Amino acid sequence: MDQLVQSIIDSLKNAVPAELIIFLISLLPILELRGGILAGTLLGVDWPIAYLICVIGNLLPIPFILLFIRKIFDWMRNTRFVKLVDKLEAKAEKKSAKVTKYKKFGLFLFVAIPLPGTGGWTGALIASVLKMRLKDSLPPIIAGVLVAGFVMTLLSYGVLGSLFGWGG
Predict the structure, then answer these.
(1) pLDDT tens, position by position, for the chain (168 residues)?
(2) Are residues 54 and 127 in the same domain?
(3) Both 91 and 54 in a single domain?
(4) How far is Cα 166 from Cα 156, in angstroms, rounded to an integer?
(5) Whole domain around residue 154: which residue ranges?
(6) What domain of life is recorded for the organism (predicted)?
(7) What is the pTM assigned to this prediction?
(8) Quick one: 55 and 80 in the same domain?
C-alpha cells in the first residue's frame, strides 16, 4: 500500500493541493482512509485536517455502494465483467462470516479495525451481500470509519510518526 500511495502522491503533488490528494486517495477502494492518512503524513498535512478529509472521503461512496451495488452487479453479470462480480461477491461472502454472527456490531468491528481487506468499501459490500438495510448498516460503517481513522491517525502521526518523523 505504501508504494501505491507514494506513486499517487508523486503523480499528483505538482498539480493539485495536498488536501485534494488525500481526499482522492481516501475515496479509492483498497486504499481508503488508511491510504489517505498515510498520504497526509507523507505530505505534511496537519493531523486534524487529514483525519477530517480522509473520513469524509472514505464515507462519501458508502451510501451509494449500499444503495446501488446489487443493481450494478446484476447489470455487470450481463457484460464481460461477470468474473469481476463473482470475485467481489466471493470476497465479501468470505469476509461476511466475521460479520454475520454479530450483525451491526460485527460490521462496526470489521470496518473499525484498520487491517488490509477491511474498511468502509468492503464493509458496505458485506452489508449488501448480507442484505442489511441501509438504516442498519450505515451507522456501524460510519462509526467504524471514525474509529479506524482515529487509530490510523494515532499510529501514523503519533507512534509511527515519531519513529519515522512523519506528519506534524
Answers:
(1) 789 999 999 999 999 999 999 999 999 988 999 999 999 999 999 999 999 999 999 999 999 999 998 888 888 777 887 887 788 777 777 767 666 667 889 899 999 998 887 899 989 988 988 888 999 999 999 999 999 999 999 988 876 556 665 544
(2) no
(3) no
(4) 7
(5) 2-59+148-164
(6) Bacteria
(7) 0.83
(8) no
